[in-house]
């Protein structure tokens, strides 16, 4: 049985390094599933979770909050390079909820000032916080 090696790397180092049966990620064009022997690709990723079905157990699936980045698949190696990424077990839920509240407040203030750039930046921060909250709920 062929396996897929999965590496997720940020500027802080390796966040994830395991063997997998399948990786599911959301690209800018939609969701993509990667199996062993997949054709080589390089795709930009959206702010969303990456789901990884591990080889060690039929039901073992890891969820990683990835805040954009790029995924390259080649020679049964799936490498994700992202500005930030967190495993579900490493997410501080209280911190993520505070970040969500701050981003919502910043969006409201930016709308009042009619500052489109600030709205856009705060919306990205909100999406990151929501992603982290969502992924943290996968904890066992």
Automatic annotation (TrEMBL):
It is found in: Cell membrane. One of its GO terms (cellular component) is proton-transporting ATP synthase complex. Gene3D superfamilies: ATP synthase delta/epsilon subunit, C-terminal domain (1.20.5.440), F0F1 ATP synthase delta/epsilon subunit, N-terminal (2.60.15.10). Residues 90-137 form the ATP synthase epsilon subunit C-terminal domain. CDD domains: F1-ATPase_delta. Signal peptide: none annotated. Its main location: membrane. InterPro entries: ATP_F1_dsu/esu_C_sf, ATP_synth_F1_dsu/esu, ATP_synth_F1_dsu/esu_N, ATP_synth_F1_esu_C, ATPsynth_dsu/esu_N. Keywords: ATP synthesis, Cell membrane, CF(1), Hydrogen ion transport, Ion transport, Membrane, Transport. GO terms for molecular function: ATP binding; proton-transporting ATP synthase activity, rotational mechanism. Pfam families: ATP-synt_DE (PF00401), ATP-synt_DE_N (PF02823). It is a peripheral membrane protein. Residues 4-85 form the ATP synthase F1 complex delta/epsilon subunit N-terminal domain. F-type ATPases have 2 components, CF(1) - the catalytic core - and CF(0) - the membrane proton channel. CF(1) has five subunits: alpha(3), beta(3), gamma(1), delta(1), epsilon(1). CF(0) has three main subunits: a, b and c. NCBIfam families: ATP_synt_epsi, PRK00571.1-3. Produces ATP from ADP in the presence of a proton gradient across the membrane. Belongs to the ATPase epsilon chain family. HAMAP family: ATP_synth_epsil_bac. This is ATP synthase epsilon chain. The gene is atpC.
């Amino acid at each position: 049985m062929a396996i897929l090696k999965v590496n997720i790397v940020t500027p802080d180092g390796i966040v994830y390094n395991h063997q997998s049966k399948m990786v599911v990620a959301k690209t800018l064009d939609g969701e993509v599933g990667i199996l062993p022997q997949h054709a080589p690709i390089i795709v930009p990723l959206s702010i969303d979770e990456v789901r990884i079905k591990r080889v060690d157990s039929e039901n073992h699936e890891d969820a990683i909050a990835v805040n954009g980045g790029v995924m390259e698949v080649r020679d049964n190696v799936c490498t994700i390079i992202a500005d930030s990424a967190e495993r579900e077990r490493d997410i501080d839920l209280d911190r993520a909820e505070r970040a969500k509240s701050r981003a919502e407040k910043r969006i409201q203030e930016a709308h009042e000032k009619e500052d489109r750039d600030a709205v856009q930046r705060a919306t990205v921060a909100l999406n990151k916080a929501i992603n982290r909250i969502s992924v943290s709920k996968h904890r066992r």
